[in-house]
Amino acid sequence: MIFAATDFVMYRSQRGRYSDQSLTREGWLLATEENIADLILQTSPGQMFFLHRRISLVAWGIMYVDNQTTSNHVGILVEDGCVVEALTSTGVTKRSFMEYVDNSSYLRVSNFPLTEEQQANIPKRAESLLGIPYGWNTIGRIFWQRVSGHDRFHHANLPLYGDAIFVLLAVAVPSLWWPAWPTGAWYAIALYLLLIGTGGLRRRRHRRKQKNQRNPRAI
Q1: Distance CA 176, CA 133 (A)
Q2: Cα distances (angstroms) measured from residue 178 to each of 169, 172, 186, 198
Q3: Which of 11, 51, 172, 181 is the most interior residue, by most CB within 10 Å?
Q4: How far is it, in rounded angstroms, from Cα 107 to Cα 100?
Q5: What is the C-alpha separation between 76 and 48, in angstroms, rounded?
Q6: Residue 167 binned pLDDT confidence (cut-offs 50, 70, 90)
Q7: Rounded to whole angstroms, how far apart are CA atoms 86 and 72?
Q8: Whole-structure pTM over 0.90, yes or no?
């Protein structure tokens, strides 16, 4: 887990992409009462908010697995300065945006333009999901897609793949000196490399399809 350990040290020490300067350049705002109050005034219901939480092992793990992003939580802004979000403890819930004031984490809000219809429908749809349990099955599926390289919507996460291969090698290499050591890990490495390769092909096909849809050839 060489790449993971290095990235975690960077996160804990707030260096590199986790530094205050880097986050500020990307448009993140410190989670102060003043900044969140300004966001509530400047944004519209239906927009998404993103959280970069400090300091949390779970938050870092999400960012590391999720292809080196700096966001580890997301929710929907609704009326009255509230957000709708999915929490592991309560499922889909609604609470005040001000609950994120901690003067250490960072927040930002999507700037995608919304039509009047979207501004009405997105919050309504979000609030209709209140009380639904946390989607552990969905999280498990996303995790598998990230680790296996079969997430066609994101770029390849090479550090994550490298760590997985290092772990498999650590299990497999002793079989070179001890004949009694199980050799199944070598087959697992071959299978994992095959998964990564087919995942890369899937991403390329998806990007090519999107490009063709944006720029259809004249007939």
Answers
A1: 47
A2: 15, 11, 14, 33
A3: 11
A4: 9
A5: 5
A6: very high
A7: 12
A8: no
Q: Which amino acid is at 208?
A: R
Please give the distance of CA 16 from its chain centroid, rounded to a whole number. Answer: 18
3-state secondary structure of 134: coil
Q: What is the C-alpha separation between 11 and 159, in angstroms, rounded?
A: 15
Say which residue the tokens 């299978």 belong to. 191
- What are the DSSP calls for 146-201, one per residue? HHHT--TTS---HHHHHHHHHHHHHHHGGGGT-TTS--HHHHHHHHHHHHHHHHHH
In this structure, are residues 108 and 48 in contact, taking their beta carbons and an 8 Å threshold? no
Q: What percent of the chain has pLDDT over 90?
A: 65
pLDDT at 217 over 90: no
What the block records as the tokens of 1 is 């887990």
Q: What is the overall mean pLDDT for the chain?
A: 90
The amino acid present at 146, given as its one-letter code, is: R
pLDDT in tens, 61-87: 999 998 768 999 999 999 999 999 999
Backbone torsions φ then ψ of 105, nearest 5 degrees: -80, 175
Strands (E), the chain: 29-30, 48-52, 73-77, 82-87, 91-96, 106-109
Structure tokens at 141: 């599926």
Length of the chain: 219
